[in-house]
C-alpha cells in the first residue's frame, strides 16, 4: 500500500516521483525478518491477553425425602368456650354455691341475688298501665259520642209526609238541637174521644167509627186504631177511657178541626162519646239539627211533600272529622304506651334469671367475685367465670411467605413441654385472617388453631405448634439447578465412570466432560427441589453449573458470568433461556428460596 502526503497551500512543492526499481536481494531478507517479528508478536499478545479460562463443573447430589415444609412457633392457650357472668344490680347476694376450681354442668346454680327490686319496678309499671287504661276508656267514650254526632250530620225525613214549616236553609250556622223543619203525615187524621166505661166491653180496635166535621159539614168513616184505658172523669162524674179513631184525609182536613164521632157497635147501634176531641195529623215530627255547624246542603221547602228517608239537610262535618282523627291518634298512642309497659313487665320478669344465675356451659370455675351477704360495688361486676377446658385455642402468626399454604381444617401438632416429658395434642386450623399485622418490616397473618385437649390444658399455657405444608410424599429429590432442558427433554447430567444404560446423546459441548445426560420424569417441586419419578437414583452426583477459574494474573476469583451460567444451566443451543419442561403442568416454586417467619425446612429433604 502506497502512502501519499497531501500538500496544503504554502507548502514546498512535492518532489517528482523517482523511477521505480526492482527490489534487490537485501530488501527481500528485510521483509522476511519483519514478517517473522510481526507473527511472533501476535502469538505473544494472544498468550498474554487471551489465554483460555478453565471451567469448573459444580455438582450436588440427589437425595431421598419429601418436599414438605414445616411452619412452627409458639402460642398461649385460651378456652374455646368461656363465660363470665356479671351482677345484675347492687342488690345483696343471698347465696353463693360454687368456688374456684369446682366443676359445673350446664344449668347448675352459681349464686342468687335479692330480686325484690324487680317487684317494685313491676308494680310501678302496672300503676302506669292502670292510669293509661282510664285515659283509653275516656277516649273511646269520646269517640263513640263523636260517631253518634257525625251520624246526625245528615237530616232525613223519618216518614213520608208534608213539610208544614221550614226554618233553615243552606249556609245557615245552626247549633245542636236547633229546629230545622216541621214534618207531618196529613194523609190520615186522628180523633181521640173519651167513652164511658159502660161501653168498655163493646169497644175494640178495628171496629167501625164515624166522624162528623162541622166546619166541612161532612161525615167521614173511620176505624178504631187505639184504646187507652185511662180514667178521665167528666163534670158529670162519668169515668171515661180514650179511644182513637183514624180517618182518611181527602185533603180538606186540617189539624184543630172539631170532630164529633161515634162508634158502631156489633148490634148496629151508635155509641157516642162523653167527651169529643179535635182532629190531629196521624204523625208529626219536628226535625232538629243533631250537630252544630254550617248547613252545607238543604233540599226542603214549606208544604213540600217528601218520602220516607229523603235527605233534607246536610251539616258540614269537617271539624268533627278532625276531632275524630285526633281521638284515634290519642287512642293509638295510649295503646302503644300500655303495650310498652307490658313489654317492660315481661322484660323485668325475664331479668329474674339474672338474680338466680346458672351455668350456661359445662366447665371449670376459674374465679368467683361475689360473697353471700355482701352487696356488689356496681351493677355489671364480674361474679363468676367458667372455662370449658375440653377445647382450647391458640393464635399463630404466619409469615406472609407461608400464609398461602395455610388452609381451613389443616392438622396442627401441638406440643406442651414438661419437666419429664412433652405432651402432644392434635389441633385444627379453624380461622384464617387475611389482614396482615406488620412487625419490624415483616407481615404476619393471624390464624386460630383449635386444640382437642380434653381438659388437660389450662388457660394461659405456652405451647408450640407445628404445621406441615406441601407434598409429604417421599421420593428421590434433585436440585432444581440440576434440571436441564434439552433436545431429548428434561435431563440430569450425572457424573459416572461408565455410560449409564438410560443415557441420551446430545450435541457436542452440551454435556461436561465426565458426565452423561439421562432423561428423567419430574413430579412435584418446591422452591429448591424436584421429585424425580424415574431416571435416576438417590445419592447420584449431578452437574448444576460452571464456575470459572481465577484469571491468570491472580487478582480476583471469577464466579462465572450470568450469561454463561444460564447457557450451561439450560443447555442445548435452541433451549437457551427456557425453563425445563416438567410435564403435567408442574413448575418449580421460585418465590424466594428459604422460608421466613417461623418456617422450617424450606424444602431441605431428610
UniProtKB/TrEMBL annotation:
The terms under GO molecular function for this entry are: efflux transmembrane transporter activity
Q: Where is this region: Disordered?
A: 1-23, 544-606
Could you list this entry's UniProt keywords, alphabetically sorted: Coiled coil
Biased composition (Gly residues) is annotated at 582-606
Q: State the superkingdom.
A: Bacteria
- What are its GO cellular component terms? efflux pump complex
List all Polar residues biased stretches.
545-561
Occurrences of domain YknX-like beta-barrel (ranges): 392-465
**One Pfam family in the UniProt entry:** BSH_RND
Multidrug resistance protein MdtA-like barrel-sandwich hybrid domain sequence ranges: 82-185
Quote the InterPro entries the UniProt record gives: Beta-barrel_YknX (IPR058636), MdtA-like_BSH (IPR058625)
Coiled coil located at which positions?
A: 115-156, 324-358
PANTHER family named in the record: MULTIDRUG RESISTANCE PROTEIN MDTA, SLR1207 PROTEIN
Q: What is this protein called?
A: HlyD family efflux transporter periplasmic adaptor subunit
Instruction: Give the lineage.
Output: Bacteria, Bacillati, Bacillota, Clostridia, Eubacteriales
